[in-house]
Design a protein that fits this description.
alpha/beta, 13 strands, 41% helix, 342 residues, seven-stranded mixed β-sheet, Rossmann fold, single chain, 2 domains, 19% strand, six-stranded mixed β-sheet
C-alpha cells in the first residue's frame, strides 16, 4: 500500500489540469448540468499522452471534445498509471474527490474499475476496452477487426516475399479480434500467404517487440502490422533498422520512420467521447441498456492512413475499396470472439 500511495503521489504531480468543461456535481446516479456547476472529469492514461499511439489518440480525442464544451468542464489528465496495483488508488482518489466521470484508458483498468465503482455509485466510470460493466460504468472500445482486416489486405497486397507478420502486446479481446481479422483479410488476397504472429504479453515491451520484429524480418517477412501502444515503437524501430515496411496502429506513425511506415490504422475517439458526455448530461448514462460505445469503420471512428508511394495506384485503389466496403457493412467476417471462447 505504501508503494501504491507513493506512486500515486508521483502520478498526481504529473497531472495536466485544464479548466475546460462543466456540467454537474455528483448528486446520485446521472445528473444534468446545472447553472454554474462544472462537470468534473478525470482521464487516467496507462502511458504518455505523446506516445503517437493508444494514449495520444485518447488524449487528443478528450481534448477536442473538451474544447467544444468551453468552460463548462474541469478536466484532469494523469499519465503513466500502468500497473494494476497503482490503478485502484488512482481511481479512488478521483472518486473520493467528487469527480463526476473517471476514464481508465486500458484493459488493465477493468477489475479495478468494477471494484471501485461499487463503492462510489455516484461516480461514472468509463473503461477503455474490456467487457465487465455495472450500472455506473461503461466500456468504450474499437472494432479492431475492421482495422485488422484492412491491414491484412494491405500487407498481402504489398508483400513481395509472401511472408507477413503481426505483433501484439497482451492477448486481450480487441487485440485478438484485430489479429484474427488481419489473417482473414490477408488470406482473402492470398490464401497461401505465410503469417507470423507474436504476442509480447505486455503493451509496454518495446524491446521485446523489436526483437520479435527483427526475427520476423530476418526470416523473410517484409511487412509487419503491430496492434498497439508502446510495442509499436519497437516494431517501427526494427523496420527502420532493417529497411523494411511496417503498418502503424491507432495514430499516424509515419513521423517515427517516414521511409518505413507505409500506412496504418487511426482511431478517432471523439464521437464516442461526445456520446458519453451527452448521456451523462442528459441523465442517460446509468439508464442506458447498452453499456458499450464503439468506434468502427461504419461510424467513421476507425480510419486509415493513406498508403505512401511504395504502393501502386492499383493497390491504393484496392485498399480504399476494402475500406469503403467495411464502412458500408459489406464485408462479412467470422465472430472472432466466439472462436476464442469455443
Amino acid at each position: 500500500m505504501k508503494k501504491a500511495t507513493k506512486a500515486l503521489s508521483l502520478f498526481l504531480v504529473s497531472i495536466l489540469a485544464v479548466g475546460l468543461f462543466a456540467g454537474c456535481g455528483s448528486t446520485g446516479g446521472d445528473t444534468a448540468a446545472g447553472d454554474g456547476e462544472k462537470l468534473r472529469v478525470a482521464l487516467i492514461l496507462p502511458g504518455r499522452a505523446d506516445d503517437v499511439s493508444f494514449n495520444q489518440a485518447m488524449y487528443e480525442g478528450v481534448m477536442a471534445v473538451a474544447a467544444e464544451y468551453g468552460d463548462r468542464m474541469e478536466l484532469k489528465v494523469v499519465e503513466e498509471v500502468y500497473e494494476v496495483a497503482d490503478i485502484e488508488p488512482a481511481l479512488m482518489d478521483f472518486a473520493s474527490e467528487g469527480y463526476d466521470v473517471v476514464f481508465g484508458h486500458g484493459f488493465q483498468f477493468m477489475e479495478p474499475i468494477i471494484k471501485v465503482a461499487e463503492k462510489y455509485p455516484d461516480t461514472m466510470f468509463c473503461l477503455g476496452t474490456g467487457y465487465k460493466t455495472l450500472a455506473n460504468t461503461c466500456v468504450y472500445d474499437v472494432h479492431l477487426q475492421d482495422g485488422g482486416y484492412l491491414m491484412g489486405v494491405t500487407a498481402a497486397l504489398l508483400s513481395k516475399t509472401g511472408k507477413i507478420g503481426v505483433i501484439g502486446g497482451a492477448d486481450a479481446s480487441e487485440i485478438y479480434r484485430g489479429h484474427e481479422a488481419f489473417k482473414f483479410g490477408a488470406r482473402s488476397i492470398n490464401p497461401d500467404i505465410e503469417i507470423q504472429e507474436v504476442y509480447t504479453g505486455d503493451w509496454t515491451d518495446s524491446a521485446g517487440a523489436k526483437e520479435a520484429a527483427v526475427s520476423m524480418y530476418d526470416s523473410g517477412v517484409d511487412i509487419i502490422w503491430h496492434s498497439g501502444d508502446g510495442i509499436g515503437l519497437g516494431v517501427v524501430e526494427a523496420a527502420k533498422e532493417k529497411n523494411q515496411m511496417v503498418l502503424g496502429n491507432v495514430a499516424d506513425q509515419s513521423v517515427l520512420a517516414p521511409n518505413s511506415v507505409v500506412g496504418g490504422v487511426v482511431y478517432e475517439w471523439k464521437s464516442v467521447i461526445r456520446s458519453m458526455f451527452e448521456d451523462v448530461l442528459n441523465d442517460n448514462f446509468t439508464n442506458r441498456q447498452d453499456k458499450f460505445y464503439w468506434i468502427t469503420a461504419e461510424n467513421g471512428g476507425l480510419t486509415y492512413v493513406p498508403l505512401t508511394d511504395v504502393a501502386s495506384q492499383e493497390v491504393k485503389d484496392q485498399v480504399e475499396e476494402s475500406y469503403r466496403k467495411l464502412a458500408a457493412g459489406e464485408i462479412e467476417m467470422p465472430d472472432f470472439d466466439a472462436d476464442k471462447t469455443a
